[in-house]
Specification:
The chain is mainly α. It has eight helices and two strands, in the order ααββαααααα. It has a single domain, classed as Arp2/3 complex 21 kDa subunit ARPC3, CATH 1.10.1760.20. A hairpin with a 2-residue loop joins strand 1 and strand 2. Helix 3 packs across helix 6.
């Protein structure tokens, strides 16, 4: 979904750049509450993984590309604010050193892939968790839903930006069909990868998964309560 230079007009690119800068500024403050000695090393691994999967591009149409996004996965693993920073660093490195996405479109790409996917993914994740049993294993299906929804939501936001300030010679209907068609498929693949990754980490170190910490605390309380009940019954 990397947007190239000139695909959107200057006012739209400036507006998305300002929006991206504002969210990144807030994320710098919010990440202080999410990062600790356990999650800091995982943050680097998450950024490296997202960087790798985003470098695998295939054309969608009119100069845009499709690939895995990783916003939902990053939000679940390290928290939404830290995830925004991870995606921002990845997208900046790709634009500056690998010509993947335009320099003038960097704010647009950060908004679409580093903000929209993270926020949409985290909202869906937390909503689905409320419907599932409060145990660490629920993090994986919730992460699946988060990734599945966040990718086409980001594609729809891109289509909205194009409707406002698009400059390419392609109809809005054709672009929407191409973007949604490809990114629904991408969302399915990303959902499977996200769920498998979260499930693997939860099985070994659930305390490292930001989205599962509340579930782990609930499980620990249940274990302590059950243990106390057993001791009372024995006495």
């Amino acid at each position: 979904m990397h947007v190239p230079d000139g695909f959107l007009d200057a006012p739209t690119s400036v507006a998305t750049g300002v929006a991206a800068a504002a969210v990144v500024g807030v994320a710098l403050r919010g990440a202080r509450r999410e990062l600790d000695d356990r999650t800091a090393p995982l943050t680097g691994l998450v950024a490296a993984f997202v960087f790798a999967v985003q470098m695998l591009n295939f054309p969608v149409g009119a100069g845009t590309s499709g690939h895995l996004l990783g916003g939902a996965l990053a939000a679940v693993l390290v928290g939404p604010w830290t995830a925004v920073l991870c995606l921002t660093v990845v997208l900046a490195v790709q634009a500056l050193f690998f010509a993947d996405g335009g320099i003038t479109a960097l704010g647009t790409n950060i908004t679409l892939m580093g903000v929209v996917t993270v926020i949409a993914g985290w909202v869906i994740f937390t909503l689905v968790l409320r419907l599932l049993p409060r145990r660490p294993g629920s993090a994986a299906p919730a992460a699946f839903a988060a990734a599945l929804v966040s990718v086409p939501v980001s594609a729809l936001c891109f289509v909205g930006l194009y409707a406002v300030g698009g400059t390419a010679e392609i109809s809005l209907g054709a672009l929407m069909a191409a973007m949604l068609g490809w990114h629904v498929l991408i969302g399915i693949g990303e959902a499977a990868i996200t769920a498998a990754t979260v499930a693997s980490i939860v099985a070994v170190r659930p305390d490292l998964v930001h989205g599962a910490r509340g579930l782990l605390a609930g499980q620990a309380l249940l274990i302590r309560t059950s243990h106390a009940t057993s001791k009372e019954a024995a006495s």
